[in-house]
Every structure is written in structure tokens, then in C-alpha cells.
Amino acid sequence: MNSHPSHKRRPRRGAALLFFATLALSGPLAAQEAPSLLGFAAPNAARQLDAEARLDAMVDPANLESWMRRMTEKPFFVGSPHNYDNAMWVADQFRSWGYQVEIAEYEILFPTPKIRHVEMIAPESYVATLEEPVLSQDGTSGVDGQLPTYNAYSADGDVTAELVYVNQGIPRDYEELERRGIDVRGKIVIARYGGSWRGIKPKVAYEHGAIGAIIYSDPRDDGYFQGDAYPDGPYRAEFGVQRGAVQDMPLYPGDPLTPGVGATADAERMTPEESPTVMKIPVLPLSWGDALPLLKALEGPVAPASWRGALPITYHIGPGPTQVRIHLEFNWDLETAYNVIATLPGEEYPDEWVIRGNHRDGWAMGAADPISGHVPMMEEARAIGELAKAGIRPKRTIIFASWDAEEPGLIGSTEWVEHHAAELSEKTVAYINTDGSGRGFLGMGGSHTLESFINEVARSVEDPQTGVSVWERLHAAQSVGGGREPGDKSDIKISPLGSGSDYTPFLQHMGIASLNLGFGGESGGGSYHSQYDSFDHFTRFGDPGFQYGAALAKVTARTTLRLANADVLPFQFSPLVSNIKTYRDEVMALLEEKRNEISRTNALVASNAYVLAADPTQTYVPPPSEEEVPFINFAPIQNAITRLEQSARAYDKAYAAAFAEHAKMTGSEYAAMMTPDHRTALGRVNAALVATERSMTREAGLPRRPWFRHQIYAPGFYTGYGVKTLPGVREAIEEGDWAQASEQAEHIAATLEGLARAIDSATGMLGG
Question: If you ran DSSP here, which 8-state letter would residue 544 be given?
């Protein structure tokens, strides 16, 4: 699984480099004046920067290459022998670097296929190959022990029906079908990847009465339309297949049988039939090579322009005359997941934890996803361990987590978080995540309380290709792309987090401030969740020389160490308020857009003028008139944001005053000031800061899915990975549930009021 912000940002490489050629830049990073650091008194900032310089000198790209080669030589999915071997080997590495290591085991549901069969039985015969060919240019493409191509948590089934093409298979596509009078009840649907997380596609198909689903990779999105296909280039080949899980993760991630509790050996479990997240219809992924004969035989209306891919056919919707049989049966077995938890106790605040994680399991060979993110984490841990052996130990406890069973549904991390929820809530300062990474531009997503902090980190790490900072390179790309003015040196906005990686249980269930980091934009694509996500593919197209992997280790090591060593945790609230105001404006605009849309639709229905603009020969099936949008009171949210702004400004003022007192102190003067009472007072300040993110959660959670407690960020109910900000009210408006929208607006206002009180508490303690 892979969902870091860099994958969403693909700047134009040539334009960005042209910008660098004309940009007047300051000298090399090492020659610049050392900056002050958020949260650090001046003497401690100097020590921190010295430690980071020593750490940079230790980071060795050759380690990343060697470790990736070793970890990806055999398949390492959940339950495979090499997955266990990798876990034990990673644990041994951490022990050798001075960490206390625990293997946390969980018994989780992981179905694997017994029968896979897809066949077109009319108007002609075609049996899908369901195989990825061995390539001579890819040394592990024929290795034994690989998982077949399938979707985990599909239902068992043997169904035969007419085929209907549903574009990306998301709710708006079914609205288009309804307008055209096309019904998928009793049919099998075929959807292309894209537009949402894959599990949304069979979920929505089932809600509309379909009895089976096929998901295929269209070359427009993921193949030769993008560039040369593998092995000539990085993009998905004719018979490359994207494996992946399809359980209903927007309800809850983790083991489908043990929601809310750790899946220990003695945990009480549902049956797969009882689980609300196990899919209710059979679903299977196909390559475009296997999908082409099915789509080519379809007739019916021509698909809208936005629905058409890059296959050499006219895209028709159906239904029929293509008839398809899908026959799937699975082994519904429990497998053991092995989380490697490595701890470096803090010297001053051992009960304050900074947790750094990356998953270790893959679907096939897993070089890009996840090992390209895992080996930088290992190198980061090795370097921090070497610093500790040299006497430079962190103030707070650092925990490195090598998660298992992420690919089937964020299971390893979720079960560990659910198992240790009370202790994590009490002790965890922040969680830092990586997943797959590549080369190009730094992607930064996470809690906006950490926006200023991670911008500061990004300004301090050199980009391997350009020699400027990774922040400067990203800024230049955004300037060329029209996202920023070239002279604007304000912080880059980080992306809010939806789901798709292991930050989800920390941020959205526990209310732990989180970051998700990784490089991308110049790595191409096409290997994702296929057997071609290999060492050979990654070292040719992902990050040759592992220079960006080394840069990621430097970014995340700074992030981890600064959070572990800061005198006052580097949370800042003005960026958070700015983003919340943006989300408020979006939700209010969405409400007005919905009001206007319903008014227009009702007027068209009343005038009997509802026609298909793209094809005047076809008339839409008129939708029923809808209820006009009622008044929804946003005044409490507006008032809460006004108070929140005041609280954030007061904290900024108190923070500036507190650190101004320390700016001219020598190290000995600062040390003399740090009496036990002063340390205790600092501990109270930091506990109050940690509580601010917790205050953004609500115990009752979101409508229909109480597991998701965060009121500012959540994955969308019908997006899966994609984020919904202010999700309670936003999704109620999107779905036209006006009573729920009013209720959720009240909950958001109360949450923001509680956040303001939490910030005020931290301000009072800091001022004292």
C-alpha cells in the first residue's frame, strides 16, 4: 500500500530545472548561517545541529542498496517464509545498533486464492490468463512462491452475467449510468483503476446490485499512454496486474475480524461472513491485456469522453452482449503478522515517545512498495544508534516500528495501536511515517500543527540532484507549476492525510500528531503491486544509486531527533487555523454549490428539458425532483474559528517571549536554569501540547464509522485513500443528508472550541 503526498505531485522536471538555472540562490547549505530551531533553546539548537551534521556523514546509500537486494530476493507477503526471515533479520540489525527489540505477533485473517477463473462466454470465448509473464530483463520475475494476481477479501462466488463498463466505478459514475437508464443489478461490472481506492469499486457496485466486479489497469492511467512500458520503460506492461486488498477500510482498517481490539491469539473474533468489511461480491484484478477482449466485445452506448481510456477500441458501456463468468474461492486462513518494535530509551523523558514507522510486507517483490521506504528508515536508525553509542542520546524515547501486514489493510500497525491504545494515548508525542519512496520532490503530509516544523526540516537537507535544499527544489517546482509566486518564501502547505498507510491508526483513531514523508515525481510508475516491483525495476527507474533514499533518511532522522530532543515540542497552531479556515470555506462553498445544483436539476425536470448535451439523440432518464437545501447554521463554527485564531495568536506570543529569554544564554547558564522543578514544568507544557491533537478527536467518531475519531481529517467514505477534511459535515452535504449536516456542524464547532481550550492551556503553562 502506498499513499504519500509525493505520488500526487508530478512537477514538470525540465521546467523545474530551467527554473533552477535562472534562480538566484544563496550559497551551499553548509555555508549558510545556522538557523535557530523550533522548540530549542539556543545552546541546545547548536548541539542538535552538530549531531545532525555527524549523522549526515554516516548515511551511506550503499547500505540501502545492499539491504534492498537482500529483502527483495524472494516474495515476502504475510505468512510467507521470507517475510518471517526478513522480520528476524531486521530485528537482529536493530539489536546490533543498540536497540531493545520486541517482536509483536498478531493472528490476522489473510485469505489466499484456491480458484481464480474469468471467462467471456459470449459473444465469443476468451479465458483470461491471470498471469504475469517472466521477463529476462527482470531477475526475480519468475521466482517461486509468489502470490497469484487477486484481490484479498473478495467474496467467494461463481457468477455469470452480462458485463457493464462503469468507468472508475465511483458514485458519480453510477449517477451517470442512472441518467442514461442503465442498471447494473444482476450484472458484472468492469471498472478501471483510478479515482478512488480499489476497495470502493466493488463496494459501490454491490450497493447498486451488481453480483461481481472486475478491476483492470487501463494504459491511459498506468501503461503505454504514460511512457514506455516495462521492461523498456517504467510503466505497466500488457499483462502486469495490480494486486491489492478490497475490504471496506473506510469503516475501519486492520484485521476484519477484530475491530477495535488487538488481534492477539486469544482475541474474540467474528467469522468472515459476519465482518462488515469483507467484500460481499467476488472481485478480481485484470491486466489490460486480459481486459481488452471483454471491453472490445461490449456494445451499447458509447462511453462519455472522460470515461475513455487508451485501448485501441471504441469504449462502449453495455450491458452486453459480453457475458462473463467469474469463479473465485479462497482459503480463509489466519496468518501470523510480525511487527518488529525497536526502542531507544530517552535519557530525560523516557515516558514521552516519538514513533517512527514503515511497513515491511509486500504483495510480490515489493522493492518500491515498501522496501524503498524501509531501508532509509533502517539507515536512519543505524545512524541514531551510532550517535547514542557515542554518548549523544535522545531526551525522549524513540521507537522504530517495522510493520507487518500493511498491504492487506494497515493490519500490523492497527492491531498494535489497538492493543496498546491506553499507553500510546498517554505517552506518544508524534508518529512519523514513510512508505514507498522514489526520486524527485519531497512530499509532505500530516497534522498541520507540524507544518512549520517539517518545513524547517526540509530547508536543512540538500537535494542530491540540484544541490539546493529539498524545500527549495519543491518550492521551485510549485512556482513553475503556478502554485506559488517565485519570491514567496513562506512555508509550503503540507497535505492533509486521508489513508493508505500506517499513520491512519495513530492520527485518525488515537489523535496522535503524524507526518507522512517520501520522495517522488520522477520515478515513473507501472510496477505497483505487481511482480515487476522488483530490485531490477527500482534500480533502473526508481532511485538509481539510492541518492534520494539517503536524502529521505536525512529528512526523517532530523524529524525524529528534533521531536525527541526539543525543549518545547515544535507544535505551531497558526498554520492549523489557516487550513481549518480553508476547509470551512470549502464546505460552505460545497453547500452553496449543492443548493444551486438541486435548483437547476429541479428546473430542468419541471421544464422536461433534461437531455444529454454530449449526444442530443439520447435523452436522459429524468431524475426525481429533490428537496431544496435547508438552512444550515455555520455560525457556531465561525465563532469557534474566531476564538481559535485568538488562541493561536496568544500561543505564538507566549512562545516567542519564552524563547527570547533563552536566546542569549550560554550552555552553562541554560543548564543551571534547568532545575528539576523547571524540567517538571517543561513536561507539563509538552503534555499540554500533545493534548491539542487529542482534542481534535471525538469518542463517538464519525457517522457510520465510529473507529475514525478525528474531526478534521479522515479518509472519505467513498474515496478510501483520499482525504475528507471536516469529514462529518462535508460528507453529509455531499450525500444530501441535511439533518446530519446540521448535527455534524455542531460537533465540529464543539471540537474547535475544545481545541482552543487545549491551546489556551498550553499557552498558560508556557507563559508560566
Answer: G
